[in-house]
Amino acid sequence: MGAPVLVLPEAEGLIFWIENSIEWVAANEEKIVDLSIRSRWRNPYFSPQWLRSWWKRLEGHKTPVLLVVKDRYGMLVGFWPFVERPGLLYSKGLWPFIFDEANYFHPLAETCCIPLLVQGLKSLLQKYIFVWIPLMRNPFWKNFLEPKIAHQKQPYIARAPRSTSMVNVDSGEFNEFWSKKLGTKSQKSFRYDQGALAKQGDVKFEFWEKFEDVRAMMPSTCLVEVESKKSKDGAGLFSVRGKRGFFFELFPELAKLGQIRLSFLRLNDEPIAWQINLLDKDYLAVHHLSYNEKWKKFSPGRQLLHANMKLAWDEQRVIDFLPLTFAYKEKLATENEKINELHWFKRSLRGWIAYRLIKWNMRIRKKIHYQGSSKSKGSEALRKALSGEMV
Question: Are the C-beta atoms of 228 and 292 separated by less than 8 Å?
Fold first, then answer.
């Protein structure tokens, strides 16, 4: 246990400190899992399995900076994992764990300790040039972080680049909900696709959650991914070097704790669509969904999503589509919410320079987006400089 570094009068009985060892995660695995159930906002990506698997894959200089809060009885009530990374002008910055894969970066925390976590993060700006929190739930931002930064002098950049969509289940029938959300025309089209695919052969939906089953099904995921549009566009789950090995190790480990469900749509035993669901108590997050482009006209992705949503509905789970905006997610959702991003800088010359350069980088990227260009040399050079790479 690290030495206590921060105590707030308004957080009496709570103690904040920083751990710099990844072994702390393994030693406190059960406590982290228990906290995830009690946390004010769900974040399936900060489970011990995600953290350890990702840490082994992360290359280059790295130092864990784990923000921890316990109460007077020793119970873990707050956990926010960051990693120290080299940055601009020989400086160091804090990036969240799993910054290249996760869809949420708000902490696992009970409400009582969130102000202490935020104050602890701010105190680290004495040592680091900046802190980056890419994606966080809007209530966390509005109620805790935004009021904090509004009354301090450190420069910051805040924006809401994405949104998330959720389905809060009720006591009604799923088919009634689905029909109402789709509308008459879309529902008719969906039933036609179901019938048309059934005429092609034997259609089967599979759901796998046990360790042995998830491990055995991993090769089937490759059969779908290699023929998906996402992979052909370079945005597939396994497109980046090393990602396939990472997920082949991670998913079976998640299954040991009941934190994942793999599902497949098969036609004559051939997998033509698959979906990854991250599980927690009364909660399901749709991490990935893809399908074989050969069968696109039969809407295999939508058929598999329908089957997964029905199962989650019957289990009375909140369905979280995660922060990647698609029209079908917003259409099916009962709740849509902004997702926020924050760059928080040290009040210093180097902090001001980093602030100006990142603002400039954002303007360049926005301009590229509007022009339809794929890459900017200036933007790429800045990205390398901020992450400590050779330019």
Answer: yes
Number of neighbours of residue 236 by Cβ within 10 angstroms: 20
Sign of CA dihedral 314, 317, 318, 320: negative
CATH class of 170-316: alpha beta
Phi/psi at 314 (nearest 5 deg)?
Answer: -65, -30
The domains of the chain are located at 9-161+340-387, 170-316
- The CATH homologous superfamily to which domain 9-161+340-387 belongs is Gcn5-related N-acetyltransferase (GNAT) (3.40.630.30)
Eight-class DSSP state of 96: E
CA 140, CA 161: separation in Å to the nearest integer? 16
CB 251 within 8 A of CB 244: no
Q: Do domains 9-161+340-387 and 170-316 have the same CATH topology?
A: yes
Q: Could you tell me whether strands 92-96 and 108-109 are parallel, antiparallel, or unpaired per DSSP bridges?
A: unpaired
Long-range contacts of the stretch 58-61 (C-beta < 8 A, 24+): 58/83, 60/85, 60/86, 60/388, 61/85, 61/86, 61/388
Q: pLDDT tens digits, the chain, 391 residues: what are they?
A: 554 566 565 567 899 999 999 999 999 999 999 999 999 999 999 999 999 999 999 988 889 999 999 998 999 999 999 999 987 667 899 999 999 999 999 999 999 999 999 999 999 999 999 999 999 999 999 999 999 998 888 899 999 989 999 999 988 899 999 999 998 899 999 999 999 999 999 999 999 999 999 999 999 999 999 999 988 888 889 988 889 999 999 999 999 999 999 999 999 999 999 999 999 999 999 999 999 999 999 999 999 999 999 999 999 999 999 997 788 889 999 999 999 999 999 999 888 988 898 888 888 877 776 665 444 445 554 444 444 444 3
Q: What is the pTM of this model?
A: 0.89
Q: How far apart are CA 327 and CA 186, in angstroms?
A: 13
Please, are residues 36 and 46 in contact by the beta-carbon 8 Å criterion? yes
Cα distance between residue 121 and residue 142, in whole Å: 17
